[in-house]
Design a protein that fits this description.
alpha+beta; 6-stranded antiparallel sheet; 15 helices; 25 strands; 31% helix; 28% strand
């Protein structure tokens, strides 16, 4: 059973402290989060809670409480428009809580999951706001340690609010836990996943991962298990953003690569330095040494592509002749003499052969010559490989490798929330693109209908269609009616054996169904009746008391 499913069975309280609970709005890492009202100043707030007696945290209850108090301590020290404000902290009845600013909007992870990525300028603007907020925290000696899209709220589609300093580290405190991983693995820095001490540059690495995801729509270090994610963080480099989105400027490759450098000294050393390059990304020039030093894989790709593109011209062109070195005069003279001697010997040999041939022909009988002539067949010479000009075949066109991705198109009536493999994917109708080929579990949820699920197979470059008409589940809602009771003369009224006042009396909200009514008064006979209350109607009951 997951953490969220366990929380679903916890009854929502009416009040926490002086705060009136309106509804549950989420599950935090340590407890439920409520939307509430502060009646003292009529302000809407959010309350993050944790039960001290919860079995979920029984093994490390003290550490959980320390972390919870620390969240209030840390965030309470911060006053910045890009950071959620903390108003109050308290505890009662085994419940520990923090009261904070209530913020309406979408978290960044929902925007990324929707596949409707903001344009580059909008992405840079959001990142600069986060840099400003986190940079402010760094200047106050606070490291967030869990920066991720789910902890960044976008208000009015343009303003940023950074949330959840729940595992933040106060640089001056002694609560640092070496050797213990605390945070979200996909966005952790190499030093953090190794359980080493961290500083402000771990937040810079996480910001680089978020920037990569906003630019490409893909996770920098994907994986179905924590082990896979950690291995990739430590040993693998993500595909440069420009290779996934060709329209991106190469300067963003440089910025992302530097922010996510596995060597902490090669990373940006402060949020201000990171923000400066982001702000100037359109005119940013990479250092010359970085331009020259391309990754090995990129160099191989460049060479192979250029070789293939120029193959016809390269084969047609003859290799340039190497210049011969000037021979010494003596060597020239010897070569000339040798060639003259060879010519004389060749001429003599030719004369001898011609003479022998004529002598043989004249001395041979004609008949024999004729018969030989008839029987003689032309000699079959062995094939001679005469060098021909090499035929140059044009290279075959390079067929683009089809991406092994597909999509799922989901529709429903009425509209419903979509979950793909347990993760939210927006509302219907929607097409979830860039899904790796494979099997997916699609779940549709609607508050007024039973949950519906199906298994979908995503194929290469194809869209799998999912459509569902919800069947209305029959929910019998209990109704209420108004009960008006009058008696002559007046008397004291008991409704279901509970005194409610004296006649005439109106009870504005009575549950539908049969109810017992009893009216008493000294000197008169007690009167007992039953009445059936109908919902959404005024139900009148007139009685007359008799004297004893």
């Amino acid at each position: 059973m997951t953490l969220i499913s366990v929380f679903q069975f916890i009854t929502m309280p009416d009040k926490i402290g002086r705060y009136e609970i309106i509804k549950t709005i989420g599950q935090g890492a340590m407890g439920l989060v409520y939307k509430a009202k502060d009646p003292a100043i009529d302000r809407t707030v959010a309350i993050k809670t944790i039960r001290e007696d919860s079995n979920l945290f029984a093994k490390d209850a003290e550490e959980v409480k320390k972390r919870f108090r620390r969240e209030a301590q840390v965030a309470g020290r911060l006053s910045h428009p890009g950071i959620v404000t903390i108003y109050d902290v308290g505890g009662e009845g085994g419940l520990f809580y923090i009261v904070m600013e209530y913020v309406e909007g979408d978290t960044l992870d929902k925007i990324v999951d929707s596949k409707h990525l903001p344009d580059v300028d909008k992405t840079i603007d959001l990142m600069l706001q986060v840099c400003d907020a986190i940079g402010y925290a760094h200047k106050n000696g606070i490291i967030h340690r869990d920066i991720k899209p789910a902890n960044i709220m976008i208000v009015d589609k343009r303003y940023v609010k950074v949330m959840d300093f729940g595992i933040a580290r106060i640089a001056s405190s002694d609560m640092t836990q070496v050797g213990k991983i605390m945070g979200t693995p996909n966005y952790m820095s190499p030093e953090q996943v190794m359980g080493a001490k961290v500083d402000n540059r771990t937040d810079i690495f996480s910001m680089g991962v978020i920037l990569y995801e906003l630019l490409t729509g893909e996770k920098a270090f994907p994986g179905e298990s924590i082990t896979t994610v950690i291995y990739r963080i430590l040993h693998e480099h993500p595909t440069p953003p420009k290779k996934l989105r060709l329209q991106l400027p190469s300067s963003l490759d440089y910025i992302v690569n530097k922010a996510m450098s596995k060597e902490i000294e090669k990373r940006y050393q402060s949020m201000e330095e990171f923000a400066k390059d982001l702000r100037n990304y359109k005119t940013l020039e990479q250092p010359k040494e970085l331009k020259a030093a391309k990754p090995e894989a990129e160099v191989e790709d460049t060479l192979s592509m250029s070789t293939m593109a120029n193959a016809p011209d390269a084969e047609k062109k003859a290799e340039p002749k190497k210049p011969e070195l000037a021979k010494p005069a003596r060597q020239k003279e010897i070569s000339k003499q040798s060639s003259t001697g060879y010519m004389i010997m060749g001429a003599l040999l030719l004369v001898i052969l011609v003479g022998a041939g004529l002598f043989y022909i004249k001395g041979r009988p004609r008949t024999a010559a004729k018969e030989d002539k008839k029987n003689v067949q032309p000699a079959v010479l062995p094939p001679v490989n005469i060098p021909e000009k090499e035929k140059v075949e044009p290279p075959k066109p390079i067929e683009p490798v089809a991406a092994k991705y597909g999509s799922i198109s989901v529709k429903s009536r009425p509209k419903a929330r979509i979950f793909i493999n347990g993760k939210p994917a927006g509302n219907t109708p929607n097409e979830i693109a860039n899904l790796p080929v494979g099997e997916y579990n699609v779940v549709l949820k609607h508050d007024d209908f039973p949950e519906w699920a199906t298994q979908v197979s995503v194929q290469e470059n194809k869209a799998a269609d999912v459509a569902h008409n919800f069947i209305k589940k029959e929910i019998r809602k209990e109704g209420f009616g108004v009960l008006m009771i009058n008696a002559q003369p007046w008397g004291v009224v008991y409704l279901d054996d509970k005194e409610i006042g004296s006649t005439p009396i109106t009870v504005p909200r009575v549950l539908e169904g049969l109810h017992r009514v009893r009216v008493v008064r000294d000197g008169f006979k007690e009167l007992k009746v039953e009445i059936k209350v109908l919902p959404n109607k005024k139900n009148n009951l007139s009685l007359k008391l008799e004297k004893k």
